[in-house]
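Recap from last week: sequence in, structure out.
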Amino acid sequence: MSEYPIKYELIKTCKQTGARLGKIHTPHGSFDTPAFMPVGTQASVKGMSPDELKQINAGIILSNTYHLYMRPGHKLIEKAGGLHKFMSWDRPILTDSGGFQVFSLAENRKITEEGVTFKSHIDGSRHLFTPEKAIEIENSLGADIIMAFDECIPYPADYDYAKQSLERTTRWLHRCVEAHERKDQGLFGIIQGGMYKDLRIQSAQEITAIDLPGYAIGGLSVGESKTDMYDMLDVTVPYMPKDKPRYLMGVGSPDYLINGVIKGIDMFDCVLPTRIGRNGTVMTSKGRLIVRDNKYAEDFTPMDDECDCYACKNFSKAYIRHLIKAKEMLGLRLTTWHNLNFLLGLMKKIREAIIEDRLGDFKVEFFKKYGYKI
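Predicted structure tokens:
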């Protein structure tokens, strides 16, 4: 592993659940795991400055290859000194490959062995993303962790297509490895396979056979049931190396985070906290709360009386509701700030529960209070 810039350190395993406590070391510092990564799609976590992200202890953030390629362009960011300097963030960054966006946002896409031809969601211009192109963009951006270009199949997908797709993803990963030039970036492979257990195992075996500093599970949280998602984790994680990070892509609700950690996951990301925050919804210790609702018009208590974030320490539900109704940008900044602080705080509590060998008990306590079914 000495040649890789990304190294995973396993610190402890929870005796109650088997969950892992660790640390991931990168060229821009280390962060504790299990970790939630705020999403900064376009080189900015919506509503938050880099200093504010540090105040809530964000150890790593995620940016999006597709969006930054479209605007302002990866060569401009490279000219600026790379993504870290461009956005003034000196902690670790992960960039996804743009695969999900190519398949979910782009119009008239055509998939071939070479790559994917598609129309821009911005101006309709035509583009070709290949494994080599995705890696070229990510090399220019300069993130610490970069993701391989994979095919994100729709849900549901039939068995034959899911099998063909995962095998193409494996072939694309080989091409990504060949194209990857920078020694200060760690390339992660992505396991696919749809909702088929044998295909998940096949993909995990093929992807992890390629020696990389970390691996991700893709193609989940795309509309399937919770049962299906957990089944896919149960069948996939045992085939992933114990000495490398395991990343579950696109997952961010509290129940998924806790159960994902118990099933052996180290890293998560999702737009959920910023997206629902911009809609006036917050996660609290007692469940979700829609702060823009009329019943909070004269509620002068914090959004969450157990929260120590800037928004909850200084402002009431009534004030934040007023800001949202008046379309003042501060209102949605405060709900976003709170939601990110809530999830990052949840991950800290999860890590503490692992240290104390009581993550199973913590799950029961949290689910009961939040309103989830055990």
